[in-house]
Design brief:
The complex is a heterodimer. Chain A is an all-alpha fold. In chain A, 74% of the residues lie in helices and 1% in strands.
């Protein structure tokens, strides 16, 4: 694991200090992009818990992001800042729990399809429940009240707050991954039946992964709503879910540094290319598609792969193959 | 110790187990033998809660454990070593063992770990190696050791000799005897009826989802019909 080496710690420290210095050095445009990197980090690292740690392919992740953002948009006049953040997180986590509990008995592709459906249903609800969400027009003017001198309508404060949240999440995720829960997730990912016969409560742990992932997405939703001071249903559609999956896959499924790198690439690259190619926006999805296909062909484990995952994709060594072959032969000759 | 009465398991309307009753007394080795698809593995899965029962009840040490789920069954002291070993191939041998003791406290875990590395010296040489890089026999040892990490009172072993060389089969059955001597009761499912009946106290013969015959293992070994059907004449 990268963080265990002093080299890894050094890189994290440099990154954190650079991120900390950024609002005092850079202009508004750069700060805006950096804020989005942070928001997407909350989303991609959250999805990484679900896909990477626990091995559940969930495709409707933007729904949790949307719930977090809409909870913020609806409750900001009524709640003080800490409570508002807590309710965005809790709202998304609850939504994760209730959408996860019935579908988590499904596996692989089936789970992917159902979660994709859930994601679309959520977007359509947000679009059509005019009385609550103001429909396709969205909700604007989200300016949470100042709390103990902390004013999140100021972009710099919001950015620094989000940076603190991301740093805390990264730290907690490393702890989680090395914990008993993290190892149980790995076991479930590798072999559910074996995991169950070891006494691991599979259903409970899968729901927990969903809950933690959704909670992080809810936090991302909060910062998105505050950053934009505006939410509308189209920000939480299928495109968004695919983008988050791409960040996880390109960086390296299950690998925290990998997912961070993948998120940087996919947020920064379109911005860099925007300057060179004016009409890049319209080719965005095509670009993601090609990128994903290339990754699967040439580096399926991701750019900075997780140790365990790397092993999963490595072919078995020759010695074992030989023995398996001879076993088959023995059984036939019996 | 274990009392199974009239359990039934359906797979989407097809009855795999149709009213099986059996018991295991403390300290025994009991074997289920029978043809492929007779329902032996389903019976084990039903006992430890991996498969839902559509009828009947399972009692363990007098307590009704029907339908409480695999995780709680394991915590009560029933371990299953699943068919085909199902090692966590990308985890190290040590991590595999640690997963086996998932329901235990870290202190108990350390003790069991020490025990297991003593009983299985092969594994102690390879603690850092990935489970998937072990040979078939070593994987079977690891699977059994992983099952024992939970310090079960009752160990369910599903086809421990599957895909092993004859020498390896002998070693596995020697270990099975050792496990009993260390005080664990065993319920075994086996294709290799000769070897299995050799170590067992009693056996049940399973055919078509039902118990067709039962008795002392030594007597079944002599039985003409059993010899013809399961022991190769």
């Amino acid at each position: 694991m990268l963080i265990k080496t002093s080299y890894g710690k050094f890189i994290y420290a440099v990154l954190f200090l650079a991120a900390l210095a950024l609002p005092f050095l850079a202009g508004g445009y750069q700060l805006g992009i950096a804020s989005f990197v942070l928001i997407y980090l909350l989303l991609s690292l959250g999805l990484n818990v679900v896909i990477g740690f626990c091995g559940l392919l969930a495709l409707g992740f933007a729904a949790f992001y949307g719930v977090g953002a809409y909870v913020t948009a609806l409750l900001f006049p009524k709640l003080a800042l800490p409570l508002l953040i807590a309710s965005a997180i809790a709202g998304a986590a609850l939504f994760g729990f209730f959408s996860g509990a019935p579908v988590l008995r499904l596996r692989g592709d089936y789970l992917a399809i159902v979660t994709l459906g859930f994601g679309e249903i959520t977007r359509l609800f947000l679009k059509n429940m005019d009385w609550l969400t103001n429909g396709p027009k969205g909700i604007s003017g989200i300016y949470p009240e100042v709390f103990l001198g902390l004013n999140l309508t100021d972009k710099k404060s919001a950015y620094l707050c989000c940076l603190a949240a991301v740093a805390l999440c990264v730290f907690l995720l490393y702890r989680l991954k090395d914990s008993k829960i993290g190892r149980a997730w790995t076991a479930i990912r590798e072999d559910e039946i074996a995991a169950a016969s070891c006494g691991i409560d599979i259903k409970k742990l899968k729901i927990l992964a969903f809950l933690i992932g959704a909670a992080m997405a809810g936090l991302g939703g909060f910062f998105f709503a505050v950053n934009q001071s505006f939410v509308d249903p189209n920000s939480f559609g299928f495109d968004e879910s695919v983008l988050i999956v791409c960040m996880v896959v390109i960086g390296g499924i299950g690998s925290i540094p990998g997912v961070i790198l993948g998120t940087f690439i996919l947020v920064l690259l379109p911005e860099l290319l925007r300057n060179f190619l004016g009409g890049f926006e319209s080719y965005r999805m095509l670009f993601y598609g090609v990128l994903l296909v290339c990754m699967m062909l040439f580096r399926p484990q991701g750019i900075l792969p997780d140790e365990g995952r790397k092993a999963e994709l490595r072919p078995a060594t020759e010695g074992i193959r030989d023995e398996e072959d001879s076993n088959v032969f023995e059984e036939r000759s019996n | 110790m274990l009392d199974v009465s009239d359990i039934r398991i359906d797979y989407g309307g097809i009855a795999a187990v149709r009213g099986v009753s059996l018991y295991v007394k403390m300290g025994e080795i009991v074997t289920l033998i029978g043809a492929n698809g007779a329902g032996k593995s389903s019976i084990l899965a039903g006992i430890c809660g991996l498969e839902k029962l559509s009828g009947g009840c399972v009692k363990f040490e007098g307590k009704d454990i029907t339908g409480i789920g695999a995780a709680r069954t394991a915590a009560l002291g029933i371990s299953l070593v699943p068919e085909g070993r199902r090692i966590f191939g990308k985890m190290s041998v040590l991590e595999n063992l640690e997963m086996g003791g998932y329901t235990k406290s870290s202190l108990e875990l350390k003790e069991s770990l020490k025990d297991m590395l003593e009983v299985f010296p092969v594994l102690s040489e390879r603690t850092a190696q990935h489970g998937g890089t072990l040979s078939g026999g070593e994987q079977q040892m690891l699977a059994i050791a992983r099952g024992l990490m939970n310090r079960p009172k009752l160990l369910l072993l599903d086809e421990p000799s599957l895909g092993l060389s004859p020498i390896m089969e002998q070693i596995v059955f020697k270990i099975i005897r050792e496990i009993r001597e260390r005080g664990t009761t065993l319920l075994l499912v086996e294709q290799n009826a000769n070897l299995a009946l050799g170590v067992s106290d009693r056996a049940y013969i399973v055919g078509n989802g039902e118990i067709t015959m039962t008795g002392k293992a030594a007597l079944l070994l002599q039985d003409v019909n059993v010899r013809k059907s399961y022991l190769g004449g």
